[in-house]
């Protein structure tokens, strides 16, 4: 059973504001795009993944992610993250109602296809399932089996919110790359330690040079 992943990408100019202490305003949009590119490239390399639907209204992000093979869904609701994810899942299910769908964060630059395979394989055992982030507070992946609504509840304390919604928390070891999202400078350093994709590595190298 192959999955369609729904990946939300906010306008790059407003992305990753919490990285202000690590990357200045002129760098953050490119860094956010690099995160998304490495995330989508790794997801598309996963044998459990049939395709990736990126929900975004950012023209640059849509153009660059489409080059990698992602489908682009306009963020018509414009109502924030959860509305974008629900819309993306609905668009996917309109043409393939029997497919399993999973929401995946766009800021997983260290993502490994083999680890994502393990997570998605585990998720097939449940109607809805999720994976907590490295901090143990948020969520990096939320999965819904065929015929089940995604019902995303991302945002503050999303781990608790998804658990309260009836989704099963996946208890897996050795999937750090699927857990390590990047919101802060500390997160970025943790992702770099795991080993990030080439686009993030290139931008991060420029940041390090600029900081010397």
Question: What layout of secondary structure does this protein have?
Answer:
Blueprint: E1 3-8, H1 28-44, E2 49-55, H2 59-67, E3 71-73, H3 81-95, E4 101-104, H4 113-123, E5 128-132, E6 139-144, H5 158-164, E7 168-169, H6 176-179, H7 185-194, H8 198-210
Parallel strand pairs: 1-2, 1-4, 2-3, 5-7
Antiparallel strand pairs: 4-6, 5-6
Helix pairs in contact: 1-8
Can you walk me through this structure?
This protein has 212 residues and is an alpha/beta fold. Helices cover 41% and strands 16% of the residues. The protein contains eight helices and seven strands; from the N terminus they run E-H-E-H-E-H-E-H-E-E-H-E-H-H-H. The chain has a seven-stranded mixed sheet with strand order 3-2-1-4-6-5-7, sandwiched between helices. Strand 2, helix 2 and strand 3 form a beta-alpha-beta unit. The longest helix is centred in the N-terminal third of the chain and has 17 residues. The chain starts with a strand and ends with a helix.
